[in-house]
Amino acid sequence: MQKPLVPLLDQAVAALLHAAPGQLAGLVGRHGSPLNVVWPHILRQNVDTLRAVLRAHDVRHEIFYGAKVNKSPALVHAAVRADAGVDVSSVYELRDALGAGADPARVVATGPAKTAVFHAELLACGALISVDSCEELAALEAAVVAPARARVLLRYRPESNRNSRFGMDAAELLQCLHRLAARRASFIFEGFHCHLGGYAWQTRVQAIGELAASVAAARELDLPPRMLDIGGGLPVRYVDGDAYDAFLPAQEPADYRTGRVPTSYYPYGGRTDAASWLHNVLAAPCGDGRTVAQYLNAERLTLALEPGRSLVDQAAVTAFRVTQVKALADGKHVVFVEGSSFSACETWFGSEFLVDPLLLPSDPQRASEGAPFAAYIAGHSCLDDDVITNRILNFDRRPMPGDLLVYANTAGYQMDLLENEFHRHPMPRRIVVHVNARGAMEFSPD
To answer: Is the keyword Lipoprotein in the record (predicted)?
Structure first.
């Protein structure tokens, strides 16, 4: 029997789940299941943690909250109150950011397929635009109306990501730089941008080194860059690293209702957190003997980041109410919950959320009763693949109707990436937790 992958919990989150589970049950009773519970102050703490690393290396910096990671308005407001900029990928995210009070000058648009309406609103408010291609630069130029000018970054496609459809290679960057130099009345060139898949800090260092030639080329064209934006991908630790390392190689096909072990996962129990990752980037050699931090300072460049998942680390949980437990013909058991896998998206990507849910009993007297029980978790729709976890989970006791299964740390894409109103179920609600100076919790709709 696999040992559970117990979630790491922020103190404020643990206070609700362990010290006041009745409050959570009451919230689910009033607002429905699944219920997303959000702690905005944790985002502000995460901003401060990254900012401390940047200041320790004495580099100019800008942190843009990657708003695509979560739909919560409270989290966008928290980012603005934390004096972070906002990274937007659609006109709707732009409108939300401005509605939350974001300074338009500190909004960056990074979506690769921006519409004409998106371009127009970005130009109207003076936001920074990451240009994904030579074609986008031409479209943007056609949209500029004098005397306005478009503030732009050029998006680079690093060698480690050469097969990506996003960004431009070095030759295309140079082509765009010449176009910008010839059309200074239409553009304000501010620097370069890249966004890599994966979570390795080494690839970001490599990309910075590759961009050095483009930085020099821009200066030769009298287009001095001020910013180098390396995107997001800062890792988050969800579970204890030792437990995670022991869990992965011990998995067997029988541990899954499908009889198949997924081939890839997010690094839920990675050894590097976001702050350590950022320190590693800044302290790494940059190819000429200088560290990345020394290179940035010598070139008078601002390092920009677009963290999403790492800024909402620990900032939300998702509670599902158990509706039924069923024995199946193959000897397995399934726990049905009020909610669907559209609100817990990893199975739709052929992977798993390798964080076990916490089982909170509706009747506290049952908390220590019963024998160990194993089951997978399924949603309430008519789809056979509406499965929140294909993995067979081991519980201390049999879940009962009315109990809550609480998934921790779901703010990073997990809770709302795929949510919808299938079967006309209403969209899951979000509740914001405010922790006052005395440590007491107050709740309000998001």
So the answer is: no
The whole-angstrom distance between residue 314's C-alpha and the CA centroid of its chain comes to 11
153 φ, ψ to 5°? -110, 150
Judged by DSSP in three states, 69 sits in helix
| CB atoms inside a 10 Å sphere around CB 83 | 13
Domains of the chain: 11-39+314-445 (2.40.37.10), 40-235+272-309 (3.20.20.10)
Tokens matching residue 24: 């959570």
382 is catalytic: yes
Q: Across the chain, what does the average pLDDT equal?
A: 94
Confidence of residue 367 (pLDDT cuts 50, 70, 90): low
Amino acid making up residue 34: P
Q: Which residues contact 396 (CB under 8 A, 6 or more apart)?
A: 359, 370, 372, 373
Find, among 391, 310, 317, the residue nearest to 5 by Cα: 391
Confidence of residue 1 (pLDDT cuts 50, 70, 90): low
Catalytic choice (125, 176, 194, 382)? 382
